[in-house]
Amino acid sequence: MAWILLLLALCFALLASSPSSLASARVVKHTFNIQNLTVKKLCQERVITAVNGTSPGPLIRVHEGDRLIVRVFNRSPYNVTIHWHGVFQLLSAWSDGPEYATQCAIRTGQSYTYRFRITGQEGTLWWHAHVSWLRATVYGGLIIYPRQGRSYPFPKPHKEYPIILGEWWNANVIDVVGQALASGGAPNISDAYLINGQPGDLYHCSKKMSLNFHGKLIHELAFYESKPYAGTYKVKVTRGRTYLFRIINAALNSQLFFKIANHSMTVVAVDAVYTKPYQTDVLLLAPGQTTDILLTANQTVGSYYLAARPYASAVGVPFDNTTTTAILLYNGANSSRPQMPTLPAFDDTETAHKFSSNLTARVDSRGWRPVPTEVDEHMFMTVGLGLVSCGAKATCAGPLGQRFAATVSNFSFELPTKLSMLEAHFHNVSGIYNSTLPDSPLKPFNYTNSSNRLNQRLTKTAKSTTVKELKYNTTVEIVFQDTALVAAENHPMHIHGRNFHVLAQGFGNYEPSRDRDKFNLVDPQMRNTIGVPVGGWAVIRFQADNPGVWLLHCHLDVHLPWGLATAFVVDNGGTASSTLPPPPSDLPKC
Ligand SMILES: *[C@@H]1O[C@H](CO)[C@@H](O)[C@H](O)[C@H]1NC(C)=O
Ligand SMILES: *[C@@H]1O[C@H](CO)[C@@H](O)[C@H](O)[C@H]1NC(C)=O
Ligand SMILES: *[C@@H]1O[C@H](CO)[C@@H](O)[C@H](O)[C@H]1NC(C)=O
Ligand SMILES: *[C@@H]1O[C@H](CO)[C@@H](O)[C@H](O)[C@H]1NC(C)=O
Ligand SMILES: *[C@@H]1O[C@H](CO)[C@@H](O)[C@H](O)[C@H]1NC(C)=O
Ligand SMILES: *[C@@H]1O[C@H](CO)[C@@H](O)[C@H](O)[C@H]1NC(C)=O
Ligand SMILES: *[C@@H]1O[C@H](CO)[C@@H](O)[C@H](O)[C@H]1NC(C)=O
Ligand SMILES: *[C@@H]1O[C@H](CO)[C@@H](O)[C@H](O)[C@H]1NC(C)=O
Ligand SMILES: *[C@@H]1O[C@H](CO)[C@@H](O)[C@H](O)[C@H]1NC(C)=O
Ligand SMILES: *[C@@H]1O[C@H](CO)[C@@H](O)[C@H](O)[C@H]1NC(C)=O
Ligand SMILES: *[C@@H]1O[C@H](CO)[C@@H](O)[C@H](O)[C@H]1NC(C)=O
Ligand SMILES: *[C@@H]1O[C@H](CO)[C@@H](O)[C@H](O)[C@H]1NC(C)=O
Ligand SMILES: [Cu+2]
């Protein structure tokens, strides 16, 4: 007996003395099988690409400090890669995932194992395919809990639910984007939005199905558990308890407003960074962003819709204007029609901006990093659409008889096709990319003046693979400036391999003399994706402390293949701990 106690005491002593709590870090291993899956949605049977027979795919749970090892088998007909959205990938750039950026695709019948450690971030992230539009159905949540012995910087919730917002096409998404890229025009809009894979009660077809089910009314049906069809996701709560909802916008092309009828929410984290608690009755999530909220079930016992529909910032651009719902169901509730929240108007930029600019970081929490004060590299990047002229044999279904393009500082990005940029960088192969992205547009103009709309001198752009090289540890400040050349629009800009501080956001042209005063250098929100206000700007800052090749791109999948992207090539530092290791032996070959 005594020796057991002694042994226990010894173990505790060892654990306690371990300086970085490495003792609690685990290795978490998973296998992903990517393959065809037949699903029935909106009354139609479809074959989609999915991981392990579900979409959303497996929810991965790790603790901060863990190593994650995921072996991905591609048994689908398409080339695939998996990107771990928002994960820093410190010295593990080979596992970041974007096709032709950090790896070539995993071909049909082949596999690749992603290996990385998750450090310095806690909260909700996600994973998704990073080839063409496959992420429409190949995606899932990634939850990072505090490591053992640590707690949240907020009261422990009774229970937690992932709420993953998706976007659904009845057509094969590869055909949808393929058709657009062939024609030079815009892709077809989606047919529905989803909450945890389900469209919800407001779609015509779900109603029809519901009515057909034993002839019961749809609003009554909403209360039966385990129905033969699953059209609406339900969140069960008990009155008086507090829940953590981990909300992820995995939609392809839509920023989404999110509300819960009759309930207010308290935001506690975004993009796996803790925020100061922020109470609100509406959220806005751009594709790529996550928001963790606390919800107290303190309303009358009953049922309430959770609902999401788009924030469509571009005037005159067609969009899917449907609404997806799930049901917040109190224990003991009667089967009555759920309360429906009033969502903001599709073009409610005021509400969008208020939510997006009001959040602040929790500077007393783990994961916070003070804003770097000395800036080494000031960059001013325009983000927006442009046009490429119609080649002799091309079809040109875009404006002015040209083809849609999208640009960063008027460079329209094209992925290489022979080798990934990271391999080219690592092995010093030239001809794959040019490191000539200027620090500001070569031809400045009045970016947000609507009289420049479809001005062919300004919309004209060209395709290239042009990136920005950064010395290790460079502190970079970027002003993202929206343009109004084709349509002013809020572009959610995502940078791989890091978070950044969001110092300020505003409308019109960025004016340093006026706008630098608005910088929040004390407690700005930290994110991996920022929606640049429509017809406006956002300023971010970060330190390039992670060697590798990191994409920077718009997270609307309609704009990414048009070229709204570039990359940072971050050199090694001078030490072992700042040098990217060689590629793993199973890295897919082009
Ligand atoms: C996926 O499926 C494979 C094989 O069916 C299984 O071994 C694996 O555990 C599953 N992975 C996850 C994350 O559920
Ligand atoms: C997967 O589905 C596609 C249609 O989307 C089909 O062409 C292909 O044969 C299917 N592959 C397998 C292995 O079932
Ligand atoms: C896109 O929509 C058009 C018009 O409705 C339709 O003819 C076409 O087949 C659709 N494309 C795809 C790939 O579904
Ligand atoms: C929910 O809010 C609506 C107005 O937004 C109100 O009409 C309704 O009575 C409320 N329901 C409950 C159960 O509080
Ligand atoms: C419910 O909780 C919210 C905070 O989440 C609070 O603002 C609100 O007043 C509470 N309502 C009731 C009826 O207790
Ligand atoms: C959605 O768009 C369609 C087609 O433009 C239109 O008929 C419908 O009224 C719109 N619905 C809403 C809720 O705005
Ligand atoms: C449920 O319905 C019954 C009968 O309609 C009613 O007496 C009761 O108050 C209802 N309970 C709740 C929680 O709404
Ligand atoms: C929050 O938004 C309101 C309305 O836009 C604004 O007055 C207030 O200053 C904002 N607060 C912060 C902290 O940004
Ligand atoms: C840019 O255009 C706007 C109108 O959209 C105008 O108010 C502003 O004065 C212009 N700025 C410059 C520097 O010309
Ligand atoms: C690099 O720049 C040169 C000169 O402008 C151009 O010819 C070449 O196509 C560019 N290469 C890539 C990969 O963008
Ligand atoms: C990079 O910067 C960090 C802090 O800003 C510093 O601690 C570190 O030593 C630097 N690394 C190198 C290799 O200069
Ligand atoms: C799949 O990827 C390989 C390697 O990158 C490439 O050669 C091939 O063309 C790709 N196939 C398709 C259909 O894109
Ligand atoms: Cu965009």
Automatic annotation (TrEMBL):
Pfam families linked to this entry: Cu-oxidase, Cu-oxidase_2, Cu-oxidase_3
Enzyme class: oxidoreductase
UniProt xrefs under InterPro entries: Cu-oxidase-like_N, Cu-oxidase_2nd, Cu-oxidase_C, Cu-oxidase_fam, Cu_oxidase_CS, Cu_oxidase_Cu_BS, Cupredoxin, CuRO_1_LCC
Cofactor: Cu cation
Positions of the Plastocyanin-like domain: 34-148, 160-333, 440-573
Assigned EC number: 1.10.3.2
PROSITE patterns with a match to the protein in the record: MULTICOPPER_OXIDASE1, MULTICOPPER_OXIDASE2
Biological process terms in GO annotation: lignin catabolic process
MF (Gene Ontology): copper ion binding; hydroquinone:oxygen oxidoreductase activity
Catalytic reaction list: 4 hydroquinone + O2 = 4 benzosemiquinone + 2 H2O
Annotated localization: Secreted, Extracellular space, Apoplast
Entry's Gene Ontology cellular component terms: apoplast
Domain of life: Eukaryota
Broad class of where this protein is predominantly found: secreted
Segment forming the signal sequence: 1-16
UniProt family annotation: Belongs to the multicopper oxidase family.
Protein name as annotated: laccase
Phylogenetic lineage: Eukaryota, Viridiplantae, Streptophyta, Embryophyta, Tracheophyta
